[in-house]
Amino acid sequence: KLALIQNFMNQGDRARARERVEALLQESPKNRAGLHALAQLEAQERDPEGMLDVYTRISTIYPSDLFARYKEGSLLLDKGEGEKVKISAETMIKEFPDKAEGHRLMGLYLFRQGKYDEAVVSLQKSIRIQPDLETYYILGLTYYHQNNLEMAVTQFQTVLDYAPGFMQARIMQGEIFLRQRRGPEAQVVADKLLENNPQDFRGHALKADALILQGKSTEALAQYAKASEMAPSNYGLLVKKGLLML
Questions:
Q1: What is this structure's pTM?
Q2: Which of 38, 61, 83, 174 lies at a 20 to 30 A Cα distance from 32?
């Protein structure tokens, strides 16, 4: 049953997947794998409230499911419930000091609070216990906000070595190269973004910025034009395009 649900989700048939997973949970309301499948379905449908509800149910029924408790905490952070997340992270670390999830959640909380030095310590501890691509990405963001750009690039590259399709890590890497005025490297990143998805306006925008650094104004204008066609309500792109034309 779970394999069939997963197959429907992989095919993008979320209606049939939901029908099957709800039938499964009606038979067995505490089926942990079924609840995780439901959470995955809510994620595909971009329903954070639905995800939070499911992960809260899982963590209540199965307190040792640290993945669910971490996901619950990260979703609560998005709702601005930082103090609740801090308490949850401290409890996880106390109960499971040798597991990564509590330290990862604490690192995420500290990052969101702007306490970057403390966040680095927690995130590095999480990685030492169990390397995880999401943790490397958050650590990269933390170094970026510390203006430690080389260390940030290293973390994002670690993510991309294992998951080349992790687009947000690639975009951040490109942004750093732009800040360092490394036009050719930023253009390579942009080309990889466009290779994966030619319709992603962010790849064209990044390529335009990289071309500007290299003094290739005409080519940059063409890229800004493509990007603004794909994202007509992105006023930042229109401003850049207009200034370049001027």
A1: 0.89
A2: 83
